[in-house]
Design brief:
Blueprint lengths: L1 H20 L4 H25 L3 E7 L3 E3 L3 E10 L5 E8 L10 E6 L3 E10 L4 E5 L2 E5 L8 E5 L3 E6 L24 E2 L5 E7 L11 H7 L3 E6 L6 E5 L20 H5 L11 H18 L4 E6 L3 E7 L1 H14 L8 H9 L7 E6 L5 H10 L4 E7 L11 H9 L4 E4 L5 H5 L5 H14 L1
Parallel strand pairs: 2-10, 14-15, 14-17, 17-18, 18-19
Antiparallel strand pairs: 1-3, 3-6, 4-5, 4-8, 7-10, 8-9, 11-13, 12-13, 15-16
Helix pairs in contact: 1-2, 5-6, 7-8
Length: 438
């Protein structure tokens, strides 16, 4: 804007000089004044028309992604006018971390278009806004810069990473067959509970041909869930239990190697919350792949509850919940376990994920075990992430209570950590190492 004001000032001075001062060379003075006038008028009209004939399209490949995977967008700028655009700046104000879609386009001719693709490796879970866009341009002399707001936005949800857990094997007897549930399901199982009339939408493999032949109309079978025990994943979201250290996401290199293997550079921040969410997501995927019925519960500012079910849709529900949860609750983990697990049927398996060193949640696990519910703990060593109380006393109580426990340190490979259960001998070794470090 400073350049335009200086040019307008020179134009006014040239006009004033031609009118009031110049006497001998009035024709030259008026020629200069007309020249400045023409430049100002043409530049203003050019700037005014410059953005009116520009169209921009934004095409998102998928509105869902996952930590460690790629988010991809394609942009297209079209010059629908008859004037060339010497330069256009597209400025993006998306919230997705490290998603740099802003571009400066040079020499966009009339009736031409320009495309570019932005690929971003997702490093943070959550729900993020894509857009809005702001379009900047100006006349050839840069006297009248203009901008145009494009307020349209969309949302992208980034799921937490899910890791393969080939070595995770719960102890024998923790995943038993339960009592018959007497609960109807749309899945085809080995338990037929009855028959009913066909309704549109029923698959042909549900048709009971003997009843159909006997009654003369289509009859389909109804099924019950297999008599297997549910698995509940209970995540601790107590803000007083979780810790984190400062962290900056590493710069991403979206090259051919990353495109071939998107998770090659997966790095979790030093946060017990992010490790806990990743563990919960990985365990949910692990059991759903094994066709188990998985439920999820956590208490933050709101109660997050997903009733046990199977299939990809159930996994999507759990991942969508885990994408946005944060450690904002103030309810102790022991209270969550006691209140949520007291109505569960026998033979249910509870997986408790927490960095808490409060021994009361271990007592709660012992209490639900007395009601015939199996329990397993995943304890995050919070003092390896940041300043936090030591975990050895809590770990000792878990082992003394015969509760199968997995211990996860900062920087440790999560599949390896979940493939090994802590034993008394290993705990003694860890304790001696910490005494040496102290």
């Amino acid at each position: 804007m400073r350049r335009s004001w200086w040019f307008i000032l020179l134009w006014l001075l040239s006009v004033a000089f031609a009118v009031f001062v110049a006497e001998r060379n009035r024709s030259i003075a008026w020629t200069i004044a007309y020249l400045f006038t023409g430049i100002v008028v043409i530049s203003f009209v050019w700037s005014w028309l410059n953005l009116r004939s520009v169209r921009i399209g934004r095409y998102t490949r998928a509105r869902r992604s996952q930590v460690g995977r790629m988010a991809e967008e394609q942009f297209e700028v079209i010059n629908a006018g008859r004037l060339p655009k010497l330069w256009l700046e597209v400025r993006d104000r998306s919230e997705l971390p490290q998603h740099d879609a802003s571009r400066v386009l040079n020499s966009l001719g009339p009736r031409r278009r320009r495309r570019w693709i932005v690929r971003t490796v997702c490093t943070q879970r959550g729900r993020f806004r894509l857009g809005p866009l702001t379009l900047y341009s100006s006349d050839p002399l840069g006297l009248f810069p203009r901008k145009r707001e494009l307020p349209f936005t969309s949302a992208m949800i980034v799921y937490p990473a899910t890791l393969d857990l080939p070595g995770f094997t719960p102890p024998m007897g923790m995943l038993p067959g339960g009592d018959a549930m007497r609960r109807r399901t749309h899945y085809v199982t080995t338990n037929v509970s009855g028959v009913r009339d066909y309704v549109p939408g029923d698959s042909f493999n549900r048709i009971h041909w003997r009843s159909t032949a006997r009654t003369g109309r289509l009859i389909v079978k109804e099924f019950e869930l297999d008599p297997t025990a549910d698995i509940w994943i209970v995540l601790d979201l107590d803000k007083f239990a979780h810790v984190a250290s400062p962290w900056t996401a590493p710069p991403q290199d979206v090259g051919p190697a990353v495109l071939r293997h998107e998770r090659a550079g997966l790095t979790l921040p030093p946060s017990t919350m992010e490790y806990a969410v990743t563990i919960a997501a990985s365990l949910a995927r692990h059991f759903i792949i094994e066709d188990r019925s998985v439920g999820f519960v956590a208490h933050a500012q709101h109660r997050e509850l997903i009733q046990p079910d199977r299939g990809e849709r159930q996994l999507t529900k759990i991942l969508e919940t885990l994408a946005v949860v944060n450690a904002t609750g103030d309810i102790p983990f022991a209270q969550v376990l006691t209140s949520e697990m007291e109505h569960l049927p026998r033979h249910t398996t509870v997986l408790a994920i927490t960095p808490s060193t409060d021994p009361s949640w271990v007592a709660a696990m012992r209490g639900i075990r007395r009601r015939g519910i199996h329990g397993m703990g995943v304890l995050l060593a919070a003092n390896t992430f940041a300043s936090a109380p030591p975990y050895l006393d809590t770990l000792a109580e878990l082992l003394a209570s015969a509760i199968p426990t997995h211990l996860v340190f900062h920087g440790q490979d999560i599949p390896i950590a979940l493939s090994r259960r802590v034993t008394t001998l290993e705990m003694a070794s860890v304790a001696s190492e910490q005494e040496v470090e102290a």
